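Provenance and format

Records in this collection were gathered into a single text stream. Each protein contributes a sequence line and a token line. The two records reproduced below are adjacent in the stream.
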Amino acid sequence: MPTRLCTRGPDTCWASTERCGRARRWASSKPPNIASTSTPEPGPSGSRLAAQGTAREAETADVERQLEADVIEPTSSEWGFPVVLVPKKDGTLRFCVYYRLLNVATKKDSYPRTRMDESIDSLGEATIFSTLDCNAGYWQVAIAPEDREKTAFVRHEGAYQYKRMPFGLTNAPATFQRALDIILTGVKWHSCLIYIDDVIVYSKTEEEHIGHVDHVLRLLREAGVTLRLPKCRLFRTTVE
């Protein structure tokens, strides 16, 4: 059953990061914002980089990946923030731009996130669930051309700016929450819940669930949103 639903909407269930979607019904009018208020702590000694060359290779690979995905572009912006590579638990590196000073100067977006108690109450008598994970979620929201220069980052090979909303901006979560709320207007609180870039579809019966999931996938596809299929969980009796 899940396979039939996914093949029915192949443009929505796309697993490649390089094929992140473009949310056509929403575009950010301000530079999105990450909440990095302190310098990331280095990982344990065992996971630290053996040489600076390794870090540079990882940084270059990530920049090339973002260029290929049309997420960033070269810039001559007067703005410029440093790149920070943060070790993850599996030993790989997470590419981050240190936007602390930009975030301090940014007017905060107070758009509300979904409350957990309200979410639990809305599930009611639901017995079957599907969770959908947006592929590189923030990257699916475009940044207004006049604001792109504010997202610029610098590295040894030059400077780049984001064309799509980067991770690390303080208003990014609120911006994406609003985007999905708009896209899924009419089904939120009735057959699905949204928390930033995660969507949970819920139903009382399997037959009802087929219709609910199909409707949500259709709305996402029409809006240009793509999902990371390996992280989606379809037709489950329990969710975490």
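Adjacent record:
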Amino acid sequence: MKKRIYAAIAAALAVFTLFSCGEKTPAETVTEAVTAKVTETDSQVTETVPPEPETAKRLDIGCKTEYRETVTEANGTATYGGIRKIVEFKSAFYGHQSAINRDFLYYGRNFNFAKASDLPALDGRISGADIDGDGFAELFHYKNGKLSVWSISMIYKKNKIVIPTERMTFSASLLKEFEIGKGLDLCGAGDMNGDGYNDILFYSPSYAVVYFGEAEGFEAAAYRFDAAGKVLCGDVDGDRTFELIDADKTVIKSYKIDNNEITAFTHGTVNAELPDKYAVYAADVNADGLCDIVYSENKDHKLILRSFFGRGDGRFGCYEEDNGNKNLYAVFECNRTSDNIGFADFTGNGAYDIAGTFSKSSVSSTGILFSYDEPAYDYSLFGMRVNGEYRIYSGCRWSDANFDQSDGDHVMLTVSKDGVNWRRYIDAPMFYLGWELGVDEWWSDNTLEPEVLYVDGKYHMYWQCSYVTPKGNYGDKIGYAYSDDGIHWTRKTDEPAVICDDPEIGFNHEEMLYVPDDPDGKPFWMYTGHFVNGQFRGYVRIRSSQPDRFLYSDRESTEGFAQIGNQIAYATDESGNRTFIRITFCDADDGYGNTVWRPTLYLSKDGLRFYGSKSCVLAGVDTSDPRTEDNHKTFFLGMITENGTGELPRNEDGSYRIIYLATTCASSVAPEIFNAEAGFGIADIFIK
């Protein structure tokens, strides 16, 4: 058992201020009020330290680490006879939605109420978190010194949550009750020390009390902490560890608990006008891995929730420079009222739901407001590392809150500091569709398949736009855009990026490289599928000396381009020799007798003729997990390359590191594609 120190007060204890924090002392120490001295400028201030709250030191209930999808591995050696190469590889895949998890178009704007058949009135403080490792939050209820822990049982269909309606119910069972002490406020729950176990946070005047989860149960630790407002907890910066939050109206301060100390972390605000009477909560309403700040009020027989989405830096919602961007906050009005609610992810989809006892027409019902909306999807993934930041540009279904009518495939951005923990850019798509702007041109329809190069201080994006030829054939176009920061883009709309005189030829699923030593001075390489009179004619390569114009008349034939919508890279050895690598997918056995799609690598010496190997099968989705049933296949793959140019990083031992990205779904076509998520894997390969 890990040793937890239960803090008491000693004479040398310093009163917590913004920049200094109290030490914890052993639990056996007798707690009594003492005085402590704090130096403020040149004067001495004496303050009476209140006694530490009397609480239960342990909660004996078995715990497991928070659910994480199993990391799969695949290692081996593959022979590429066509180019006389051998590849040794070690790979791991981190889950079907480890890069992008986005189930709904809108978050925080729609909830459906479902009654609980077994829950009593929730008239105390409410919170919840997953403590049994199944991915679904247990419900915590605190009242009059007693903490009740409830298991919530959902209505399933093929291990998936059915969207609740007013006529549906769910059940709850009491797991355990604890007498933990009176005078506390249940503030929230989450992993506050980064050990994988969720913890439970309480507050008593001048003390934060954390029950740290462990395999044997919860063990308490008390910290001196003088809060100015409501004490909460949530993941402010997206590192999967919850911070302690002090929400004083619209001033939000966060603190980290580390090495038995509380240290200041962020100091931000919420740009909101608050009603006279409100309650405030911290919850990840939009499933982006960042906690949001939610204000609730009862008005005109309605519960009104205003969610201000976390920005990752201590700010929440939109500010003056955001020009009222409605994508950064959400408002929901429920035809019920409640004086006390609590947030937790009871459905396991990443978006927090709301538990409470609600009143409607003078009738009270205990239940949960479940988050839901129209389904979203993410696919066509492109990866790059630029200026120390990892980026995924993807095509996805997006509906923008700033438009009365907005829906369709857009280009979106997801970012990471380490290539492991990813955060969606929720402000806006990289650009809006033409029809959303009232324009009817070749570039006005659905836009996806982004590929981005960062060359000479400028970002160059290539994208596919839906288009129908004059004769009604498939005729998608490839467009070009440029940017200084990779977020705010300018499209070149006077002509497509691929110049072709035949209006009955279309292009799709482009893949880009930047090869600076191209022998003909044409470093911009585009590989694109092409259609003639509606018939697919395979991939061609077009090289260009400039980033925005590729002449179809300069096309070169390719060989071995298995599947569409993937990404190409290259590995350069110590002698400057280059091997081109294309990630794609192949049929493979999942180990349980099922044929699924798994990532594989094709190699080329000249960038035109590519060769595969049946022995090269990288790790993919864990198909034994019932929650991956609709996401067993991996396709529309990408890789993280340096500046998006295609260059793979070379390790000290001579191997190459590939962080690969995979669309995960049951099929690449509708309607299954509407369940598409994005996962990532890591492969280290030796090329011999």
